[in-house]
Design goal:
Layout: E1 3-6, H1 8-11, H2 15-18, E2 23-25, E3 33-40, H3 44-58, H4 71-78, H5 82-94, E4 98-102, E5 105-111, H6 112-119, E6 123-127, E7 132-137
Antiparallel strand pairs: 1-3, 2-6, 3-5, 4-5, 6-7
Amino acid sequence: MKFILFLLPLLLSSVHSHHQNWHQDCNINIEQTIKFNLILNHDATQSAILSQLFNNISNPLHPNYGKYYTYDELCYIINPSENQYLHIIYFNKNNNISCEFFCDSFMCSSTIRNIENVFNVSFCSYRSEEHTSELQSR
């Protein structure tokens, strides 16, 4: 089962190339704990079902227009099997990553040092005179 490592700061990593006044600083506190999400991939069937449900509630001509699905209803529809997430739970536990499972994703936290080692990434911060960004992954 594949999963997606989602580090919110990673989305901002392109900021450095678009602004001349940004300065990279890789002397960061590697013992700092940060939060990140691991998201399970949905198979084609799950994706098609979710897409159809969301299209229905967004289509003014559909009888379900304007309705919504609760968290529990969506989890029931997605319904990942134990095999899809148990090995991720064990992987996280064996790598000193604390995680809480939410239906099809994990909210995790660990030190920068540990994340760099486990996922083979490096972290830096970027600063500018205008504003300071969050921690960045490169």
